[in-house]
Design brief:
The protein has 99 residues and is mainly beta. The protein is built from no helices and six strands. The chain has a four-stranded antiparallel beta sheet, with no helix packed on it. The termini are far apart. Bound molecules: zinc ion.
Length: 99
């Protein structure tokens, strides 16, 4: 689809990029203690990035968060065979907005 600069893009097609990361115990300890997926979405026609709604900025092993610019969701995940609490012992970081 060719972009028409006189009309707003209807955002009909999308591209999603997913990077799955293995989180190790330490730089010198290759033991995998968790996994995380970084997900970004943009319009495949005009390239406009999309922002995630309803997520706090930061990184948490307990649930999805987003980057400060809200364009990347960081979601913890685990193998289907792992215990439900797999990876929950990892430290996280929160970004707090001040009005
Ligand atoms: Zn678009």
């Amino acid at each position: 689809m060719t972009a028409d600069l006189d009309r707003p893009c209807p955002h009909l097609d999308f591209a999603a990029y997913v990077a799955v990361n293995r989180l190790t115990a330490a730089d010198d300890d290759p033991t995998v203690v968790g996994y995380s997926a970084d997900i970004t979405v943009e319009c495949d026609d005009c390239g406009e990035p999309f922002r995630w709604t309803g997520l706090d900025a930061g990184v948490s092993p307990a649930g999805p968060t987003c980057s400060v610019d809200e364009k990347t969701m960081c979601a913890p995940l685990r193998p289907a065979s792992a215990d439900p609490d797999f990876g929950l012992g990892l430290p996280g970081v929160a970004v707090i907005r001040r009005a």
